[in-house]
Write the structure tokens for this entry.
Amino acid sequence: MRVFRAKPYLWFWLFGLLPAGVWGQAIPDAEILPAMTPATIEDRERQAQEAGEAPGNVQVLEAGFVKESEQLPPGVMYFNVLRIQNNSPETYVFTPEFSVPGTCKLILQDQDQGQIELQPGQSRYMPVRLSFPSDVEGGVPYDVQVRLKQPDGSLVAAPILTQVQYRRVSRWRITTPTSKAYTSSAEDDFTEVRITLYNEGNALEMLELEGDIGRLLEVREAKGGKYKETVPLRPSTDTTIFLHVRVQPTEESVSGSPYRLVILAKGPSDTVAQDVSIFFESIDAAYRNQLSEAEAPLIISLNQAGLNEQATTLVNLAGHLLLTEGRELHYNYGFQQQFLGGREIKVGEMLWQGARILATYQNRTSQIRIGDVGGGTGLSIGGRGLAVRHEIGDTRLYGTFASNLRLPIWGVTGGVSREFSDRLRMQAGITYRKDKTDQTNAMAPSVGLVFSPLTGHTITAKAIATRLTNYGRATKPIDQRGLYYEIGYGATLGNFKYRIKNRYSSKDYLGGSPGIMVLDGEAAYKLANETTLKLRFRRNRKINEAFDEEDILQTTNQQVSQTLSLSYTLKIGKQSIGLGGAYTSHQVDNTFHTYDRSDFVFTRGYTFGMGTTIKAKNNKDIAFTPSIQMASSSMVHTSSVEAVVTPSIFKFKAGVRGRYKFGSLTADYIYEPEMQLQQQAFIEQKYYQQRVQLGTSFSNSFMGDKLSIASSATASYLLSDALLRTKLDARLSYRTLDGWNFSLHASTDPMAAFSGNLWQATAITLGLRKVIEGQQPRMKYYNLEVQFFKDEDGNRQRSENEAGIASVLVNLERLPDSEVSEEGAPEIRFKAPGIMSDNDGRVLYRKIPQGKYALGMKELFPPMEYTNLNGSEFELEMSKHTVMLVPYARSVAIVGKVNITRDKFSRLFGITPANIRVTVIDANGDAYYTLTDDRGEYIITVPFSTHYTIKMKNVLGDKFELKGAEQEIDVSEEDLRFEINFEFKEKGRSINFG
């Protein structure tokens, strides 16, 4: 593109039109175009032919942008100048038509819009500004094209093109509000946890999520015990993923060790990775109600990431007010302050437009949300606005209005859903969006249902229609109509489960993934306990079409991929073994039509893989999992002029995963191609790389879970290139009882640190969180402390010298209220795990809701010389902070055995000494009971008394005689253990000798 030099007086006129943020940005001399010389008719015709214009479109004007291309920092408005010069002896009337990206707004002066008349020798300078949205993707070139058209549609100049792109800033993070979750080994339901991904940059991130699941955890979303998912994260977008986790009820659940779930998020390369950890505890000495933070009046959170010019400060204020009569009010306000190269920050814009604001008010049937809201079916709407929901019986009505703060875009959506019965649910809705930037209207009605014709059978259906039209002075009418539907069927027939789903979207569909046809089916059969056979088939077809009017070029791209996989899992003894194989084919057809010629490129790839995994446990604290995976791939590439068959590519991976009580160890050997399959030149060379990866992690809690430490180290060594990559990560958090939480996170590359670049390779994040607790109008919280102690002096009060009793399991359950109160108390939810007394004999429940509770306890230790005097079940009213004392008195241990003597001619069968009741009555007349085991042995500890009577009934019938059915013992302080045996003797059978 040719450049031009403007006349001096013209620049003053242009500067008068510049906004404040662009004032004074003079264009360098190197970017100023020299004066254009008049062109001959022959030159114009030749230029028109070279530009591919239709015959008769003679180019008589010369035009160009000052800047052919430009890269801008994020958040800056794009500015350029279009210069048009008439070097001909005639006057021309034309209209400049701009083609700009659909996500940005074109800003022109009034005199530059509509028809323009240019006299011979005149020049026209048009300032052009583009306002891109805040979430514009960085690193992607955007074309700006101008065509100068006469009233008859012919062009008077070659199309003018310039490019602009924003510098790519990759900044994302992963977090979870639930770093520690409590669950009970007696519960078989799942606990819901949230994982949130924040994209604070302008790059489209394709994040690979991988879950490291603890040996005693089960994740419902995990397939085959492994959680993997690919999440596209658009610029300035947050995505929340919900996982459902439970602790498998095994004997190991009483060990008191944490059960950990780690979600690792990987960016485009292995060096970009972050993770979050969630610890599940089924038994502990203290319990903090996890609902309390969600229901706190005020939570203050402050995070400082980095300490240099790229530092980012995140501030968040949130709260939840529980009002009377079931009403609630939530609010959330957060903003970030970021310094990029000393860029000036507008405080008002940061506190309003750059913040996240949301307030929610709800009662038992309605909800109103104000602030950052979104929604839509088929069309997405988002921004500041209002969202409402109202329930009338089995019918739910909802609606949302949202407007973009930075762009003239607004939208509204509404719908209704109803549950007609347990077998049928239906919903219908519509979304409307208006975009003043490109002057378009978009509409998308939708309908769906879930139907269960028979028990175990479910049919789902969903359909969305979209339509895009323009309005105003648009020169080219738009009427783009699209359709999307989804039909699914699933059934469970005993041990056999299967499902099939079909999804389709037309190429003009406005929602995600237009032009696809997906068929997905899966069948699983449970052969025996923990043995499953699973088969899955998936076929995905996608068609893209593009048509260029100027080049008369039409492109059709069709991609078809098919996958067939088979997996088999079984358990042999204590070892779990998984076997699997998969076959994948991928086909790409590209067809180019230009004039009367068609060219095509056809690509097909095949992949076959198989692997096995063995899980074994050495003991309850150590486990290891070896695995072997292998795959083979090949590809066929065909065009109209050549056909190439590439050699097969082989991949191999062997690894082992080890886990101990407070951490893990991993080791992998990988043999695979260095590049992807599509790199033909690389494939012919068949260059492979070998890599060894090692990793370790550690986590533990101290000081009653107040202090938590977690660290990890990874190393990857390329054997072929002798290249070592390392990473160290450490996290430290400290929580106080009054609601303060301090955290420190640091990560570094030791190899860079050793070379003297420690701070360049180290990232540090400081965090501070404060929960402001307070009594709410509808909810009051109290602390409950239970103390188990050895009552040496017998006064049922704990003295300083009386030791506590550890390993007593306590379960606390809130009892339902007898009637519905005005305060809405029956809606209070409370689930507490079974927790165990510490070495001091204490169990502490922090912040449990008011109400009536049932408390049960169970000793997790063999009978000892002390006995609980108050029993194992209690009811208590939590209306204040309570300390509950459970004294254990010195006890007397009575052991013994039941012996059965059989007659040698006995014809009785099934006589055992098991489950025979032993009764002990003390001097006060209190009775205690126990049963004999399979061998007839028993042991019972009873509170201290000076005299006992031990009884047993003749439960074997009149065929037996019971010796010692009632025995007396006297007790002194010196001897607290007695042995009392019972003997059953079968009566002899007489024999007649005729």
Observations:
- The longest strand covers residues 597-617.
